[in-house]
Amino acid sequence: MKYASFLYYKSKYHSRQLFPKKMWKLVSLCEISILNKSHTLPLKWEYLWLAGTLSCFVGLTAVRKNRTLLLQVYFVFVNLFSTVPVLFALMLYFSEFWEFCSNSEQENIQIWQGYPLAALWYAFLIIAMQVHIFTLIFAWKLIFAWKGKLALRKVN
């Protein structure tokens, strides 16, 4: 496998290489494991969750311009495109995760790198859900703080 020449660096110990020799072992192992496995397409909830990253731009614009309406739009987008897909994924992997936790025989469980895939998904999804819930809490508090500030401005 040939690599582009600009990716290599010259060191005083090795003439031309991309990584030190120890890193080559890791890269080759990852490359072999990736090439040997059949890849599945992302699920629909993953596409929807990925679309939720666009809501970040709405939220950043709302904070930069101090716009309550944009922050409310951000709140709705985070609910629809971030929290709902994560909840759906938690429900999707629940049966396999429950089977892993409750049974000593794990015949129907998908394994990745020696770990049960459902457990890895659950660990990731629980952290993602916490992040999204905190995002919603902070956005909600900011909406009410800005609305109160606007009400004070209108009275004065």
Main features:
membrane; endoplasmic reticulum; mainly alpha; transmembrane helix; two-stranded antiparallel ribbon; transmembrane; Jagunal; elongated; 156 residues; 2 strands; single chain; disordered N terminus
Characterize the structure shown.
The structure is a single chain. Helices cover about 70% and strands about 5% of the residues. With about 160 residues, it is mainly alpha-helical. It has two domains: about 1-40, no CATH class; about 40-155. It has a two-stranded antiparallel sheet. A hairpin with a 2-residue loop joins strand 1 (about 110) and strand 2. Helix 4 packs antiparallel against helix 6 and helix 5 packs across helix 6. Mean pLDDT is about 80; it is low at about 1-10. Belongs to the jagunal family. Keywords: Endoplasmic reticulum, Membrane, Transmembrane, Transmembrane helix. This is Protein jagunal. It is a multi-pass membrane protein.
N-to-C SSE string, H for helix and E for strand: HHHHHEEH
Q: Which structural class is indicated by helix and strand composition?
A: mainly alpha
Number of separate structural domains: 2
Strand fraction: under 5%
Number of DSSP E strands: 2
Distance between the termini: 72 Å
Largest sheet: 2 strands, antiparallel
In what order do the strands lie side by side in the largest sheet? 1-2
Helix content: 55-70%
Net shape? elongated
* Poorly predicted runs: 1-9
Number of helices: 6
Structural Rg: 23 Å
